């Protein structure tokens, strides 16, 4: 039986939770092919996110960064609040792996803002637990304890919905809180939490979490000055991390192991571990990885600037600048493949009366409703949506079949008329007039298309508004 994309995404998350990472990765690759073919951007983004988290669990930072280039590009164009929440979480993981603490905290807190807005328990648990770990790294134990206990409180709620995931998250929370208690000198509580991890019936499927617990035991014994016992646990943690190739974690534990060896003055072992540490560092090519992350950050900032330049800040659709400088390129591509082009010019009927009667904030809500409605309805089409100015929008469509465009225009208008602006427990139906021009596969000049579509819009107004007029370019 073939799984739907929704079922597939859920199955991948369950397999990741159970520790079956290679199988989950294979399914994610298969699902991504289907989502790309169908231009199903929400599931495309979900599957990219699943792949990135799998590679994180496998310790493959380089592939994570590479995938984030693709994920970020799709997120900018088609992402929802949920996708941006995931984006910032993954960026926090990447910054942590390359040791840029300030950016790690910044990205984590941005993700928390989205998680609180969406009331996403899974993300609230994960983000607050990550924050606990980050506060430990900074030496802020009070803040770390607060974040860890907050994560635990959210996880108790999560256990009623997703018990298997909550069990895994409980292990991660305990590992981080154990570090807090150990640093505070409460060794009994710290050991109890680590015991809980290593005796869990799922820990054998989660090597990264087991490494963290073994590392925690080493840290516990080091703080108790039981240095030889600490060495034993650090070595176990390194061996397990080596079994699945988590180089970042191996390097972290090796540094701690070296500190203990220096305290004991075990010269022979110091030499061996130092040599392995240097070889690992050379293989990892940290500078190259850091450069990858910096390139990703540069690209993200560049995209933000471009978005400000090309996008209308109120509605999130393209602006007049895009129309003047980039729409013709899009039309030229339609000409190359000999697709028909439909240009729609639309505005909100009696928009000035809306503003005068209800205020400009109400008018802004109406504009956002139109823009969001167009983006939602046309999410799977090859389309450009532009705010021309005021309450006027331009929609450009291209398709191999002229009749498809005409039918789509009719459906767009019907959909927009079904929308209502809500304020103070009252609903005001949206009235929209549209003028449409469909080209003849010869003329692809946007000014000619716009001129005829704009003329059709005036005809629609003269015909009583709340309707549309469509003509073919002669």
From TrEMBL:
Gene3D superfamilies, per database record: 3.30.70.270, Tetratricopeptide repeat domain
Annotated GO CC locations: plasma membrane
Keywords of the record: TPR repeat
Domain GGDEF: 339-473
Alphabetical GO biological process terms: cell adhesion involved in single-species biofilm formation; negative regulation of bacterial-type flagellum-dependent cell motility
TPR repeats: from-to residues: 211-244
Keyword Electron transport: no
InterPro entries given in the database record: Diguanylate_Cyclase, GGDEF_dom, Nucleotide_cyclase, Rev_trsase/Diguanyl_cyclase, TPR-like_helical_dom_sf, TPR_rpt
Pfam families: GGDEF, TPR_12
One of the record's GO molecular function terms: diguanylate cyclase activity
PANTHER family: DIGUANYLATE CYCLASE DGCM-RELATED (PTHR45138:SF9), REGULATORY COMPONENTS OF SENSORY TRANSDUCTION SYSTEM (PTHR45138)
The protein's name: Membrane protein
UniProt source species: Lysinibacillus macroides
């Amino acid at each position: 039986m073939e799984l739907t994309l929704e079922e597939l995404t859920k199955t991948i998350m369950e397999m990741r939770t159970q520790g079956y990472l290679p199988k989950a990765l294979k399914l994610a690759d298969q699902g991504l092919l289907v989502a790309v073919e169908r231009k199903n951007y929400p599931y495309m983004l979900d599957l990219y996110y699943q792949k990135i988290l799998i590679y994180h669990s496998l310790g493959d930072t380089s592939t994570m960064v590479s995938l984030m280039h693709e994920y970020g590009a799709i997120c900018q164009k088609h992402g929802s609040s949920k996708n941006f929440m995931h984006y910032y979480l993954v960026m926090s993981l990447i910054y942590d792996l390359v040791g840029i603490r300030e950016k790690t905290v910044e990205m984590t807190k941005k993700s928390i803002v989205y998680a609180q807005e969406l009331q996403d328990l899974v993300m609230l648990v994960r983000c607050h637990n990550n924050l606990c770990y980050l506060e430990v790294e900074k030496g802020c134990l009070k803040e770390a304890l607060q974040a860890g206990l907050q994560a635990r409180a959210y996880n108790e709620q999560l256990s009623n919905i997703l018990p298997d995931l909550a069990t895994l998250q409980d292990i991660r929370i305990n590992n981080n809180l154990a570090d807090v208690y150990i640093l505070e000198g409460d060794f009994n509580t710290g050991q109890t939490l680590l015991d809980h991890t290593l005796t869990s019936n799922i820990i054998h499927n989660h090597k990264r979490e087991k490494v963290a617990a073994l590392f925690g035991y080493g840290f516990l014994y080091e703080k108790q000055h039981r240095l030889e016992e600490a060495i034993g646990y650090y070595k176990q943690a390194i061996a397990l991390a080596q079994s699945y190739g988590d180089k970042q974690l191996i390097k972290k534990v090796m540094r701690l192991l070296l500190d203990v060896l220096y305290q004991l003055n075990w010269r022979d072992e110091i030499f061996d571990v130092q040599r392995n540490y240097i070889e690992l560092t050379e293989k990892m090519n940290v500078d190259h990885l850091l450069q990858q992350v910096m390139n990703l950050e540069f690209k993200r900032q560049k995209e933000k600037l471009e978005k400000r330049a090309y996008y209308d800040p109120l509605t999130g659709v393209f602006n007049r600048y895009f129309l003047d400088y980039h729409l013709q390129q899009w039309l030229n591509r339609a000409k190359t493949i000999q697709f028909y082009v439909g240009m729609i010019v639309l505005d909100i009927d009696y928009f000035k009366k809306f503003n005068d009667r209800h205020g400009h904030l109400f008018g802004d809500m109406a504009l956002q409703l139109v823009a969001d409605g167009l983006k939602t309805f046309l999410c799977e089409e090859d389309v450009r949506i532009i705010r021309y100015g005021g309450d006027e929008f331009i929609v450009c469509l291209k398709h191999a079949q002229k009749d498809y465009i005409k039918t789509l225009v009719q459906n767009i208008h019907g959909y927009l008329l079904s929308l209502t602006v809500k304020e103070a427990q009252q609903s005001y139906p949206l009235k929209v007039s549209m003028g449409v021009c469909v080209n003849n596969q010869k003329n692809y000049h946007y000014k000619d298309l716009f001129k005829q579509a704009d003329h059709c819009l005036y005809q629609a107004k003269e015909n009583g508004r709340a309707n549309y007029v469509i003509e073919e370019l002669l």
